[in-house]
Amino acid sequence: MIKLPGDNSDEISFFPMGEVSGSTGSCIPTSDAPIFVDDTMADWGGKSRPAEEKNNRLSTSISVRTLHIVLILLLLGLIAVALRTAQMQILKRGYYTELAEGNRSRIEWLPAERGVMFDRLGKPLVGNAPRFTATITPADLPQSYTERQNLIGRIAEILNQNPRDIEEKLIDYPSNHSQAIPVAENINYEQAILIEIASTGWPAIQLVKGVRREYPMSESVSSLAHLIGYESIVNEHDLEQSDYLLTDRIGRTGLEQTYENYLRGTYGRRRIEVDALGRQKTVIAEEDSIPGSSLELAIDSNLQAEIQLILQKKLRAINRQRGSVIVMQPNTGEILAMVNLPSFNNNLFAQGISVKEYAALSGDPNHPLFARSISAALPSGSTFKLVIAAAALTEGLITPRTTFFSSGGLAINNWFFPDWKAGGHGLTNITKALSESVNTFFYIIGGGYENQEGLGVDRIIEYARKFGFGQKSGIDLPGEGEGFLPSKEWKETTKGERWYIGDTYHLAIGQGDILVTPLQIAVMTTVFANGGRLIEPHLVNAIISQTGQREEHSTVVLNEQVVSPEIIDQVRLGMRESVLAGSSRALSLLPVTAGAKTGTAQWSSSKNTHAWFTAFAPFDNPEIVITVVVEEGGEGSVTAAPIARDIMDFYFKMNQEN
User: Which domain holds residue 188?
Assistant: First the structure.
């Protein structure tokens, strides 16, 4: 607006753009010319302005109130600054001193050497070797784009990588991330030297020195890989769960995983003073790392190696690939050997397995990474008859003198449930039924027939659980399976069908929907070997600290007396007779006495049966239990029993020599 003469308003006044027209001094606005007013310009009445107003051509008026507000705001701002300064200098002096100290010092974490493993005789199974990892710390990267590219280009050149690959490994981390990011693991010694040299000029580059696993028997006794396991680099989940660094490796499978907290040790740390570029000047303080504890296994590696050879030879002879063998001490639960075939070389993982190598293992139809002994879910076949015999005797459904006539099978309405032997086995008691694996006898005591009461599905499941089926054994390995015990409720819910007498008959001979692991069969067998106790199996006998202190494994008894000693003895007689004159005669010529049970498990209408065999020896004072399964191996007495015989022969000869 235009300031008129005599107008005392507080508004800021400007002259508009325009031209002066005529003697009256009228203003005609234009769009392109500013207006200039001289001292003699007339007012609206044609008179000249007073002299005191001539100096106010472009005046700006500010009210006193506005000025006061501005002054107050300035004063308050000065007070706030003064208070903040006092707080920083007095109240938080310690905090900012520490922060400043942190800006010129760093913490370096010192990795602990991982504990090793050896067998029951002291033979090394797992060791350590130097491991070099190239890392980049984002917070220490140069601010200059050109310098940063030079750094990444140099490290890529040393590692024989594409610079873009290095960038991609850093992309998920903010620029102020102060933890070292691994960009290459298991680099060779020459690369390690070059990385160390590069780090003197670029503090963002670091060489992290640690250890990697070495498995000295991984090629000659590859079956140890399922037990020992392997390490791999930590992932996001690991970092969330515990105090790992990005450069750490963690036990991923087997005993490496189960005993991770014992094996890994405790990090040390070093506080160093650095210059403005992040380069180390001096060491301020240092705390040593504590090495991890070592494991003494129950495994006898010589026995493990021999069993692997025996099983491999048999598998080749019958053109099969999959099998498991477990050797267990029945009184302590020690696993002396556990062989799964096919297996793998866990040094591949220790050295850094390639995508191609891992794809070959994971895509193999025989699943070499799979620990069959503890995870395979298979029908048990006639090995389960040991449980049925003990249950029927305990429930008083039969006595040792009870007999049934086996004529070749049982007919129920339109269904026929056969014996494995055409024409049957004739008059049969419990000892003969176990010795010759007579299906008819177990159909009757399992499901009942005519006037003879049977156990029924509920009692069968009850006793199966007492012997360790349908649940994990508690072995110190990850990935153990529970197997499966069917029930009336399960069948009605899952299949929409009622439970028939035929289902009970099948269950009584270890067929139908029952699934077990090889370890569960071994654990069941120990109950008959040791007089009735259900023992938890284990692989580690002792944990030994870096100071030499031993933490011994104590035998864990899960059930002190599954069934009475008298029942145990009666079932054992049947197992002994099986070796002397029945389906387990393959063991009859051994220099030691043994008790055993065969099994032949149907699981497919088009594929071969699984061959089972489980035994203990010596008969009167058992030292070992042996359980063998050959998947699609045919009859247990033909395929699995000779494997167990050869293992027993080797074991007792080896012990005699020692």
Answer: 106-294
